[in-house]
From TrEMBL:
Name used for this protein in its record: OmpW family protein
Keyword Signal carried by entry: yes
Top-level lineage group: Bacteria
InterPro entries, A to Z: OMP/PagP_B-barrel, OMPW
Keyword Signal appears in the UniProt entry: yes
Gene3D superfamilies, A to Z: 2.40.160.20
Keywords: Signal
Residues in the signal sequence: 1-21
Length: 216
């Protein structure tokens, strides 16, 4: 991870720690903590600018569980930390060397969003925006490349969804997020292609989740 990635991660953790450490004044009837467990579909809206050989990127969809934690300052405003990890197959397609299987990579994208909740009944819609830090790990280079390296990504996140209250404590949740996620990838394909190729890759996934939550 580069210095910039470490700095942003430190800021995110400091914000979370500060929230945990404070007893923020607000409505005594408002539960300050919410926890959700969702199943999510992560669908990249990918594109790439690949040096030398041209072409584009193809990145697979992933379906995984996701856990998130929310802290409420009052009944309307909250912070949410979103935690999940996904595995994606990667290809360079339509290049001068044909379609190239670049194996797979795991993404760890902790995302912190500020949310506004529209209260007034069992149906509670919300909107949110925040920061995303994506770490790439567990890279399998596939049959073509000798090595593939992905730079840590820092970007923005937009969010919308709703909670549907089943009772005072338990609720259902539907959530949609858009992450603006870009990475510089370096493919060492010296053995197969006689070159090292760089690429500017936009992943920009849509994340659609459905799950259950609890207020504490």
């Amino acid at each position: 991870m580069g210095k910039k990635g470490i700095f942003v991660l430190a800021i995110l953790m400091a914000m979370i720690t500060n929230v945990w450490a404070q007893d923020v004044p607000g409505n005594d009837d408002t539960s300050k903590w919410q926890f959700r467990l969702r199943g999510i579909v992560v669908t990249p809206d990918e594109s790439a600018d690949i040096e030398t050989i041209g072409g584009d990127a193809s990145i697979s969809t992933a379906v995984v569980p996701e856990f998130d934690i929310s802290y409420f300052f009052d009944e309307n405003w909250s912070l949410e930390l979103i935690l999940a990890t996904t595995k994606h197959d990667v290809e360079a397609v339509g290049t001068a060397a044909g379609d190239l299987d670049l194996g797979h990579v795991w993404l760890l994208p902790p995302t912190l969003t500020g949310q506004y909740h529209f209260t007034g009944g069992d149906f509670v819609p919300y909107v949110g925006a925040g920061l995303n830090l994506t770490l790439f790990y567990g890279v399998d280079e596939g049959p073509v490349a000798d090595d593939v390296d992905y730079d840590t990504s820092i970007g923005y996140a937009l969010q919308g969804g709703f909670d549907y209250m089943l009772n005072d404590k338990w609720f259902l949740n539907l959530d949609v997020k858009k992450l603006f996620l870009n990475t510089d990838a370096t493919v060492n394909a010296t053995t197969a292609l006689g070159a090292t190729v760089g690429a500017d890759v936009d992943i920009n996934p849509w994340i659609i989740g459905f799950g259950v939550g609890v207020k504490l």
